[in-house]
């Protein structure tokens, strides 16, 4: 089972501009996955198709699609799952975090914890995902290190352990001191990047430090680092793995400081694949049976073919090409002849994959987000949530003869988790729900580009929605009275559309026997 022990499946969480893209490139570069730090490429036709689709990404300077990048170093396989970095959330982002065993939180040294970092952190906390913190951009002016550390501890209610310490920031930046290995990393050349210049010391009082650092720099390093080592909890691997403590690495993704230490930390401390919540019982990675779950579906990488890729996280067993897996609860066994592994340079056909790996399964719409796949069809992974939409809109067709295409398109996109679609009990106009504004733009642009359906969005008289469950008689009473606000989701589950969050509170008090859920497990 060493293949499993040697895997680290993780995501980077951050606020836009904190440096996630830069850090990703450097991780891949140092991990030897790419020869030139740059964009992840797709092949031939797929590349052209993708580039059209990516127009919207370029226009807005953001990454809408997320992907999987794999790199190896010193016998460890790292699977980095990219999460879209824009302020607008999609459910994709949340769900991707259900497929990782740990996360790296990148924060900007000048800005500290920002709103999106915080939201993503909360999702990690729900699942006790352990977090390594990378405080980026120490080559720039920023806050005092103590202020940064205290903010992480206070806002996120975590213990913090500084593992490295920058010598000065911005104009005063002289290097990074590794508090664990007692090494000093120094900048070189006019760009003042880290190019491998390391001085091994015996500790903070080593006189070698006085030779290479300025008098002010070394004095402050000694004073601060000593204070930090007594002021913060020592590193505790168990507390980290339980999600109660975060080791903090200071660095500069742009100038390559701290990136190596970060990879080292992931290799040494981050957990290998963990047991996954499932029914009838959690699935340990050591189980022989091949099992996994689909956390993301990406359609139409090539608009000429309605093909899709289902991204499956392998949870147990050794997957072999050609193997048959059954989606639990629906459908026949599927023989997986051309699974895809996502190496950074290119997509590659996988022959074998291990727990913690992500494989892409091409299919024509049979696989859906939340699906469990297994050899025997005997388990079901739980905990992949649908989130209550925060924005609801009516879809208005410009050409009424396109109703069928519209339904098909909305169904497809609901399946991918781009949007949710609701079928109102009264009226013919479909209602779509999203978690963030960006998803609306994606929807309209894809309707036109891929399905040739011109449609507009109109305000709906509703703002949010809740899944309703409860005793059938009480539920019927509720739905009869509120018929104008009732709809069905794609799977036929009843949904109450509310004019405001306040209304949700109001009706849930009036109908104590009906349960109003903001998430629905699939
Ligand atoms: P993302 O939005 O989180 O993916 O952030 P990017 O990686 O695109 O970085 C945002 C901006 O910050 C870019 O202009 C980067 O060049 C810059 N940047 C990223 N890391 C560093 C760093 O360590 N030092 C400095 N000075 N700039 C950085």
TrEMBL record:
Q: Quick one: which residues bind GTP?
A: 14-21, 82-86, 136-139
Question: Carries keyword Nucleotide-binding?
Answer: yes
One Pfam entry name: RF3_C
| Family statement | Belongs to the TRAFAC class translation factor GTPase superfamily. Classic translation factor GTPase family. PrfC subfamily.
Which InterPro entries has this protein been placed in?
EF-G-like_DII, EFG_III/V, G_TR_CS, P-loop_NTPase, PrfC, RF3_C, RF3_dom_3_sf, RF3_GTP-bd
Indicate where this protein is primarily found. cytoplasm
Q: What does this protein do?
A: Increases the formation of ribosomal termination complexes and stimulates activities of RF-1 and RF-2. It binds guanine nucleotides and has strong preference for UGA stop codons. It may interact directly with the ribosome. The stimulation of RF-1 and RF-2 is significantly reduced by GTP and GDP, but not by GMP.
Q: Name one GO biological process term.
A: regulation of translational termination
Quote the Gene3D superfamilies the UniProt record gives: P-loop containing nucleotide triphosphate hydrolases, Peptide chain release factor 3, domain III
Q: Which GO terms describe its molecular function?
A: GTP binding; GTPase activity; guanosine tetraphosphate binding; translation release factor activity, codon nonspecific; translation release factor activity, codon specific
Q: What is this protein called?
A: Peptide chain release factor 3
Question: Where in this chain does the record put each Tr-type G domain?
Answer: 5-274
CDD domains assigned to the protein according to its UniProt record, in alphabetical order = RF3
What NCBIfam families has UniProt attached to this entry? Answer: prfC (TIGR00503), PRK00741.1 (NF001964), small_GTP (TIGR00231)
* HAMAP family assigned to the protein according to its UniProt record, in alphabetical order: Rel_fac_3 (MF_00072)
Q: Which GO terms describe its cellular component?
A: cytosol
Task: Give the UniProt keywords, A-Z.
Answer: Cytoplasm, GTP-binding, Nucleotide-binding, Protein biosynthesis
Protein's UniProt keywords contain Nucleotide-binding: yes
Which species is listed as the source?
Stakelama marina
Query: In which compartments does the protein localize?
Result: Cytoplasm
């Amino acid at each position: 089972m060493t293949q499993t022990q040697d895997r680290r499946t993780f995501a980077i969480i951050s606020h836009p501009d904190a440096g996630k893209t830069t850090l990703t490139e450097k991780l891949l570069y140092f991990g030897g996955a790419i020869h030139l730090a740059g964009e992840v490429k797709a092949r031939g036709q797929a590349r052209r198709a993708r580039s059209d689709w990516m127009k919207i990404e370029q226009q807005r300077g953001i990454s809408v699609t997320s992907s999987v990048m794999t790199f190896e170093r010193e016998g460890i396989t790292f699977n980095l799952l990219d999460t879209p970095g824009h302020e607008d959330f999609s459910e994709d982002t949340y769900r991707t975090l259900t497929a990782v065993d740990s996360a790296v939180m990148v924060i900007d040294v000048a800005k500290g914890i920002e709103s999106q970092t915080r939201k993503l952190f909360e999702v990690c906390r729900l699942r006790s995902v352990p977090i390594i913190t990378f405080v980026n951009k120490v080559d720039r002016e920023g806050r005092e290190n103590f202020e940064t550390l205290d903010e992480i501890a206070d806002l996120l209610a975590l213990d913090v352990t500084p593992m490295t310490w920058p010598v000065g920031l911005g104009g005063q930046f002289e290097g990074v001191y590794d508090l664990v290995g007692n090494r000093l990393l120094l900048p070189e050349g006019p760009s003042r990047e880290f190019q491998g210049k390391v001085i091994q010391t015996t500790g903070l009082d080593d006189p070698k430090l006085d030779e290479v650092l300025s008098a002010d720099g070394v004095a402050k390093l000694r004073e601060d680092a000593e204070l930090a080592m007594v002021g913060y909890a020592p590193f505790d691997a168990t507390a980290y793995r339980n999600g109660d403590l975060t080791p903090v690495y200071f660095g500069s993704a742009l100038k390559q400081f701290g990136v190596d230490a970060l990879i080292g930390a992931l290799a040494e401390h981050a957990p290998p694949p963990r047991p996954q919540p499932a029914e009838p019982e959690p699935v340990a990675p050591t189980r022989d049976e091949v099992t996994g779950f689909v956390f993301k579906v990406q359609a139409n990488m090539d608009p000429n073919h309605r093909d899709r890729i289902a991204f499956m996280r392998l949870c147990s067993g050794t997957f072999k090409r050609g193997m048959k897996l059954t989606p639990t609860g629906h459908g026949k066994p599927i023989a997986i002849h051309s699974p895809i592994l996502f190496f950074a340079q290119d997509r590659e056909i996988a022959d074998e994959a291990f727990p913690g790996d992500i494989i892409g399964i091409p299919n024509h719409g049979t696989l859906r987000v939340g699906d469990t796949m297994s050899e025997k069809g005997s388990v079901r992974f739980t905990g992949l949530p649908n989130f209550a939409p925060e924005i609801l809109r009516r879809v208005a067709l410009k050409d009424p003869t396109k109703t069928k295409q519209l339904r098909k398109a909305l169904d497809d996109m609901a399946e991918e988790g781009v949007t949710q679609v609701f079928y109102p009990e009264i009226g013919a106009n479909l209602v779509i729900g999203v978690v963030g504004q960006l998803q609306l733009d994606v929807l309209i642009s894809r309707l036109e580009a891929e399905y040739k359906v011109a449609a507009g969005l109109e305000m709906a008289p509703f703002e949010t929605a809740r899944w309703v469950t409860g005793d059938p008689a009480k539920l019927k009473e509720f739905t009869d009275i509120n018929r104008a606000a009732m709809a069905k989701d794609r799977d036929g589950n009843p949904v109450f559309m509310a004019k405001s969050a306040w209304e949700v509170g109001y009706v849930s008090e009036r109908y104590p026997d009906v349960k109003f859920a903001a998430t629905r497990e699939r």
